[in-house]
Amino acid sequence: MNDVQRRVVVVTGAGTGIGRATARGFSADGAQVLAVGRRSAPLADTATGHPLIAPLAVDVTAADAPRRVVDAALDRYGRLDVLVNNAGIAGAGPLAELDEAATHAQFATNLLAPARLAHAALGALTVSCGVIVNVTTAVGQRAWPGASMYAAGKAALDSLTRSWAVELAPRGIRVVAVAPGAIDTPIGEHQGLSPQQRAALRRWQLDRTPLGRVGTPEEVAWAIRRLCEPAAGFLTGVVLPVDGGAVIG
Hints:
Residues 7-186 form the Ketoreductase domain. The protein is an alpha/beta fold.
């Protein structure tokens, strides 16, 4: 097997959407994948028909989650090469209606959990000269009125990507990010939005997407996998928009 096929990959938020597509994509490339998520049933669906995917039901915000995830990868495979911090929750609401509990939950999942998991994985990633991939959002790079706290948390993850890239370069670890735009995932349903609210959000997104369509989870997963290839070994600190031109439109 070549280096790509020998890799061990951890993907969080792997039960649906971008995380599921990423786990399956790496598996199709021949990598061993630990698919992490809160719910067992969606993870089992992710792994069905993909024998190289092993599900692990863990809430990434739990105090013991980072050690459980890293230990599971090392116990099962003996190494860790790629960490994909994909798990995330979205929230909306203007500043005038700030919900502190919801904001804390978003930051715990979208910002603190990736930092804690990356910290726990540093030893293993140093041994493998591995890659950390943070999944952020294209709207973190521009104004998103009505969802400012979500955008701010993801923008902070962009900043961590750049800082970690410089900090961890001496260890041989690369750190990159992808910033999806409007992607066909169930995040709106998970957010509790009504069908009418989801339709309005989609119209708002499409109005700001020059290519005029919604992207697929597989298109984001393709970008994640390409950034992790040995051929991308001189790329670090980059935040790659996968957004149909939304950032520049």
